[in-house]
TrEMBL record:
Protein's recorded name: Uricase
Catalytic reaction annotation: urate + O2 + H2O = 5-hydroxyisourate + H2O2
Species classification: Eukaryota, Metazoa, Chordata, Craniata, Vertebrata
Residues where urate binds: T48, D49, F150, R167, Q216, N242
GO molecular function, one term: urate oxidase activity
Protein species of origin: Chloropsis hardwickii
PANTHER family: URICASE
Keywords recorded for this protein, A-Z: Oxidoreductase, Peroxisome, Purine metabolism
One protein family per Pfam: Uricase
Binding site for O2: T48, N242
Location within or outside the cell: Peroxisome
Enzyme class per UniProt: oxidoreductase
Pathway involvement of the protein, from the record: Purine metabolism; urate degradation; (S)-allantoin from urate: step 1/3
Family: Belongs to the uricase family.
Length: 284
């Protein structure tokens, strides 16, 4: 049991310059005894309102140095404070506020919400067990208008899809990865590096791009690029929900539409998913 959608804004001030973190937290506990379920005995139950207050107090006292560290702080607090807690899981999601710039000059206390992917993390721990940390990015919308195709696929009497060697590749990406043993990581730096790897693998070199023969291959390319560049990542899951575009037929309007005006196909849409990890992790 636990408390969901604990939303708050944490403001940190250094003189006139302000820093903000707005997050949504979910904190769930499993107790050593199920007596509150079986017998209606609530003597070990930490009220969900107390869970909410603890999260807010930790934000006040510790700040939010990184999403991952804040999730770790929450797990540590419940494990070290309450002997009746057998398991704790914390999810933290960030609202993407960015510092506002005017003529290239960063503003000291104004921010703009830029929804170019939502950062999140999870931390979970069993009593006497290891602390496990996941991080990720979701709702990241990506598009490239060429260097993508889909050819040579299996065909039978139900196949109507034509082969394409030049199409728009567009999708909404979800990516979640796990760390190995959590040491003194710079979680912010690692997250930014992984995001850069995702964009690099999706788009290819800026002057020419990179051809994608399928959404599946793009998913794998992203995973391989992250694993090759970020040693702290042990397992990475990527889901790419596809958005398709159809070229508008303008012949009746007396116009030739050379893939300049297209309309999105709202439903149904495709989805590709894969989980990839280092061999030593799975052997362990």
């Amino acid at each position: 049991y636990g408390k969901n959608t604990i939303k708050f804004l944490r403001v940190h001030r250094e003189g006139k310059k302000h820093f903000v973190k707005e997050v949504e937290v979910c904190a769930h506990l499993r107790l050593t005894s199920p007596q509150e379920y079986l017998e209606g005995n609530n003597c070990l139950v930490i009220p969900t309102d107390t869970i909410k207050n603890i999260v807010l107090v930790l934000a006040k006292k510790n700040g939010i140095p990184s999403l991952e560290q804040f999730a770790i702080d929450i797990c540590n607090h419940f494990m070290t404070t309450f002997c009746q807690v057998a398991y704790v899981k914390t999810y933290v999601q960030e609202v993407p506020w960015r510092r506002l710039h005017e003529d290239g000059v960063p503003h000291i206390h104004s921010f703009i919400c830029v929804p170019d992917g939502i950062r999140f993390c999870e931390a979970e721990q069993c009593r006497n067990g290891p602390l496990i940390v996941f991080a990720g990015i979701k709702d990241l919308k990506l598009m490239k208008t060429t260097q993508s195709g889909f050819e040579g696929f299996y065909k039978n009497e139900h196949t109507t899809l034509p082969e394409r060697h030049d199409r728009i590749l567009c999708g909404e990406l979800f990516c979640k990865w796990s760390y190995g043993e959590c040491k003194d990581f710079d979680f912010d730096c690692i997250w930014k590096k992984i995001r850069e790897c995702i964009l690099e693998a999706f788009a290819g070199p800026p002057d020419c791009g990179e051809y994608s023969p399928s959404y599946q291959k793009t998913v794998n390319s992203i995973q391989m690029h992250v694993l090759s560049r970020v040693s702290q990542v042990q397992v990475i899951e990527v889901v790419l929900n596809n958005t398709f575009y159809n070229v508008v037929d303008m012949k009746n309007l007396g116009l030739t539409n050379d893939k300049e005006v297209l309309v999105p196909v709202e439903a149904p849409y495709g989805s590709c998913a894969c989980t990839l990890g280092r061999k030593k992790f799975f052997e362990a």
